[in-house]
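QUALITY CONTROL LOG
STEP: pairwise intake check
CHECKER ROLE: data steward
CRITERIA: each record must contain a sequence immediately followed by its structure tokens, with no blank fields

ENTRY 1 OF 2
RESULT FIELD BELOW
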Amino acid sequence: MPAPATFCRPRLAANTRLAAVPAVGHGCADMMNTDPTSQNRYLTVPELAALLRIKERKVYDLAASGTVPCSKVTGKLLFPEQAVLRWIERGQTGQADTDDARPSVFLGSHDPLLDWALRQSESGIATYFDGSQDGLDRFVAREGLASGLHMFDPATNDWNVASVAAGFAGSPVVLLSFARRQRGLAVHPDMATQITGLADLPGRTVTPRQVGAGTRTLFEHVLREADLLPDTIRMRPVARSETDAVLDVASGEADATFGLAALAQQHKLAFVPLIEERFDLLVSRRAYFEPPFQRFIRFLGSSDFAAHAAALTGYDVSEAGRVRWNG
């Protein structure tokens, strides 16, 4: 898609694949928070209802739909105060909808292929990966130019679009497809014959991700679907990246983690496939057309990127760069 001479940022059409612009010049959880360092305060249903000035029944509806950040501990709904305040902030209206320059930082969920592609493309974009929800919050705060997401919406049986549309409708942002990934149980080789599915997890030691990570939310969802109680699983302290979670298993500290097929293969772990997920990129429209991100986009269309993705287990990058949603 060639850039106009004035270097304007047009609205990007949905369901289309974006080509790189030629270079110009030089260029609701059911598991306790196992993070022992967490200092979050949690709101109860009555407290959140009072804060939002709504009926308690509406709070339950928001929690059931996954609209508001929440945790469920021993049958009681709790709402992390800071996450709720950031959720409220994302819903503000009447603010100037600017598309000013942002720091050259990629936020959100950790993905090993994305991490590699950002370096290999020589984009010069720094990274700060600490989970999908953290990425959204920091993107709202304009702390980065893009965020990696894998947030499942049970109501639509889709990924990322509902979460992004709820907070960014009318904003100068675009949601791009990056990859489909195979996710399941990464299992220590010594436990390969004993853990062959979710039903084998009770009594085993599992390393979870932190609250707010897309992996954590999805793991809790599949446990609910399998009618498994999280209290029956021995939870290790949280890992803050996909790689750290798998390394905990490889070192023998945990029996399993809910991880990526690619990392299980890399660290010679057994793998039980459970789900195919979408990993998408929420991007500032202005940043998309600027040289650092354009170097990254051009690399996504290269043979080097395709070959590396093919060498990894569990990646489908056939839609990389395609627009899934437009603000």
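ENTRY 2 OF 2
RESULT FIELD BELOW
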Amino acid sequence: MQSNQTTNERGQTMQQEAIENNAVQTTETPTLATFGVQVVETMTTPSRPGKKPRPVWVARGNVFGLEEFFRGIKGRKFRGAWSFFEDPSAAILDQLQNHGRQSYAEQVESKVERDLAKAERYQTYAANAEARAESRYNTARAIGSAIPLGQPILVGHHSERRHRRDIERIDQNMRKSVEESDKAAYLKGRAFDLSHSQERLENRRFVGNRISDIEKEIRQLSKWANETNPRLVQAREKLAFWQGQLTEIEAKRKEEGGNVASPETIKVGDLVYYIGSWMPVVRVNRKTVTVSHGLDIPHFHYKIAYTRIEKFQSKPSA
């Protein structure tokens, strides 16, 4: 079963690569294939018994810059692919012909806006969950206050059934209170994370990680994609965007009088601050520095990317 699934996934990947590599501009009436996009009709696979399958259309190929448009026409991302309950072919073709795709910078801006809007919703959800938790807790306390402290269940007494019922209600309300409190804590954490989307764009380490990821993606794409392949072109657009962000961050830091770690500013013997300790530099590389552990253990060396270095100082004088 696993082997068949892997074979199908490889087949879909190869098909997608073929669609992207064969996307060319012609003088004939454009189709989705002209733009490297393919819409395939399939059926849903219901997970609940008795639920009937329904038609669904899946957009594949080069959907770069179309994500915001897909959301606008009620598309949903499922297992990495955009799915629709109505055929979106005509709408997608019209979008590509008359409006084009979003640039990567526009995509990042749209994502930040969505994250901030989602953070606001999560904060509201968290407040509601906290209110429900408090209400459940107060209900449990009110029920418990009617039972004298240490009062045992009087077996055979007319109050036995009510006493047992009250204990069960106290337990249920306390459990629900804890569940809602946990939900509120989770939603607060999600809201906090999403609310910092804009700040991450100004974080040198975050931007450096994005550059490393995209450089790796470009190396992988270069193994099979030709130079005009849209996916490779778009990956280079991403790289240019994040490199521009890094340049702006470093220029701003220099204007404010701060230091920026680079091969020009760090020399062998200097100290860099990383993971709570100062470490001596034993080699300066193009993208990283090789440092020795503070305990000076032989051969215990590892590399740190310049974008991960926030503090460094010159070689201590003898």
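INTAKE CHECK: passed for both entries
DESCRIPTIVE NOTE, ENTRY 2: Residues 271-313 form one domain.
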